[in-house]
Write a structure and sequence with these properties.
Blueprint: H1 3-11, H2 13-16, E1 22-23, E2 34-43, E3 49-55, E4 66-67, E5 70-72, H3 79-91, E6 99-103, E7 107-108, E8 113-122, E9 135-142, H4 143-146, E10 153-159, E11 162-169, E12 176-177, H5 178-191
Parallel strand pairs: 1-7, 2-8
Antiparallel strand pairs: 2-3, 2-5, 3-4, 3-9, 6-8, 7-8, 10-11, 11-12
Keywords: Hydrolase, Magnesium, Manganese, Metal-binding
GO molecular function: coenzyme A diphosphatase activity; metal ion binding
Protein name: CoA pyrophosphatase
């Protein structure tokens, strides 16, 4: 898929309506969610990819998980501002490099966050540097795989004494699940 076609599909309101508000099971048990934003960067290689991070195992929450660059929104910040700031802090992505295309529906997590995914396009080459206190690895997921409707899987596991179901995207080295997988699924629904 070309960069122009990706941009056209991301701007199309009918396609954006395919995406669904999502929530981690158990989110209703947490109380008022904390506002957060993530950057969903589509890298416009000849074969486009989605940029992801592997969080360091030293973090107090979500350690060792696959995630998008992002975090809590500061008072007065828009989701776009927060996503760009966090991408700068976590992976050294200059805030003027991403071309913001819009938002996907919010995702409510079981850990008390309302995440607003901000989709942006990036032109390579990129010189990214993971912030060692937050990110162990920056890697890319092939967009062609996201466009395959057979790939996302629903799995179940015990969490806080209850069985929960969640999305998982297959990857050779990393377990891509939970909020990140749900956001990837919405991106796929818009782009398919």
């Amino acid at each position: 898929m070309s960069a122009a076609e990706i941009a056209r599909r991301l701007r199309d309101p009918v396609r954006r309506d395919r995406a669904e508000p999502t929530a981690t099971e158990g989110h209703e048990e947490v109380g008022k969610p904390v506002a957060a934003a993530v950057l969903v960067p589509v890298v416009l290689h000849p074969s486009p990819t989605v940029l992801l991070t592997l969080r360091t195992t030293r973090l107090s929450s979500h350690a060792g998980q696959v995630a998008f660059p992002g975090g809590r929104m500061e008072p007065g910040e828009s989701a776009e501002q927060a996503a760009l700031r966090e991408a700068w802090e976590e992976i050294g992505l200059g805030p003027t490099l991403p071309k913001v295309m819009g938002r996907l529906p919010d995702h409510l997590t079981g850990t008390g966050y309302r995440i607003t995914p901000v989709v942006a396009l990036l032109h390579p080459p990129l010189k990214l540097v993971p912030e060692p206190g937050e990110v162990d690895l920056i890697f890319e997921y092939d967009l062609k795989r996201l466009l395959d409707p057979a790939l996302p899987q629903r799995q179940k596991a015990q969490f806080r004494g209850r069985e929960r179901s969640f999305w998982v995207w297959p990857h050779e080295r990393h377990y891509v699940w939970g909020a990140t997988a749900a956001i990837l699924r919405n991106l796929a629904l818009v782009l398919r």
